[in-house]
Specification:
Blueprint (H helix, E strand, L loop, with lengths): L1 E5 L8 H9 L4 H16 L3 E5 L17 E6 L8 E5 L32 E5 L23 E19 L10 E6 L2 E6 L22 E8 L8 E8 L4 E9 L3 H22 L1
Antiparallel strand pairs: 1-2, 2-11, 3-6, 4-5, 6-9, 6-10, 6-11, 7-8, 7-10
Length: 275
């Protein structure tokens, strides 16, 4: 599921301004729309997006089901490339390391999300059993090293990228990294950065190993020398899954313009009815 939240820029209208506006024949609603548009264009209201994959089925092949982002996979070990939803609440799957344990002392064996139920997550599929019809009958993450890539292409450029990773065994064995693209420009962030003492991204709460779950702090475009991202690729060095992708985008001015014109139109209709 992809959700969005708009943080509107504050503005106020004084009583004197209202009276002056009415005297000039312009309704307050039109003034609001004009102020909204100028505020939107000047500040750029941020929209927070979260993709948690909970609307997908266990084994579902993923591509364009999530609004606002297109997902793709590259598996260099196979003749097929499938990004697939994996339900971590299920038992007796092909990969026990991706199963949570609600009956145990914690959901996961370790990590900063050890007590968090994650539900549906995204994997690079290891086999193609049933996948041709859109639902893989035996969901299992690629275990060879490197496992491959999961790509996320955003319809609107984003300013940052946060995520959860599950069952990353070790950076030494699985040297994964993220690649960020802005048009023809790109930048790389190594997952090792989050484990390296003294690195700006170091996070002591991250613990790797079989059946671990961790949330990684959002990587901003500014921190890698880019203005924004239009595509992010997770290069998985081995088995693992990604979940709860979080990003922030700034809507294009046309979004604000359409909303402003809608408010002006509403003001005009009200004025016409009044006459």
């Amino acid at each position: 599921m992809l959700t969005g939240l708009i943080d509107s820029s504050p503005f106020s209208l004084s009583t004197d301004s209202d009276r002056a506006t009415r005297a000039g024949g312009l309704r307050p609603l039109a003034v609001i729309s004009a102020l909204f548009l100028s505020s939107f264009l000047a500040v750029g209201n941020a929209i927070a997006l979260t993709a948690d994959f909970e609307s997908l089925l266990h084994g579902e092949v993923v591509s364009g089901q999530i609004a606002g982002v297109t997902i793709d996979a590259l598996n260099p070990n196979r003749s097929f490339d499938y990004a697939v939803a994996f339900d971590s609440t299920q038992t007796n799957t092909a990969d026990a390391d991706l199963e949570s344990n609600p009956q145990g002392p914690a959901y996961w064996s370790g990590g900063n999300l050890v007590d968090t139920e994650l539900g549906i997550m995204l994997i690079i599929q290891e086999n193609d059993t049933g996948c041709a019809v859109g639902i893989c009958s035996n969901p299992d993450d690629e275990g060879r090293r490197p496992a491959g890539d999961l790509g996320f292409s955003f319809e609107v450029p984003v300013l940052d990228f946060g995520f959860d990773l599950v069952d990353i065994e070790s950076i030494a064995a699985e040297s994964g990294y993220l690649e960020f693209f802005q048009g023809q420009s790109s930048a790389i962030v190594q997952l090792m950065d989050f484990l390296e003492l003294g690195n700006d991204r170091y996070d002591s709460s991250i613990v790797l190993g079989n059946n671990t779950a961790n949330r990684y702090a959002a990587i901003t475009a500014a921190s890698v020398g880019l203005e924004n991202f239009d595509r992010v690729v997770l290069h998985l060095g081995g088995s693992g899954a990604i979940d709860n992708i979080q990003a922030t985008l700034v809507p294009e001015p046309s979004t604000a313009l359409l909303l402003s014109l809608g408010l002006v139109g509403l003001a005009a209709r009200r004025r016409s009815r009044a006459h």
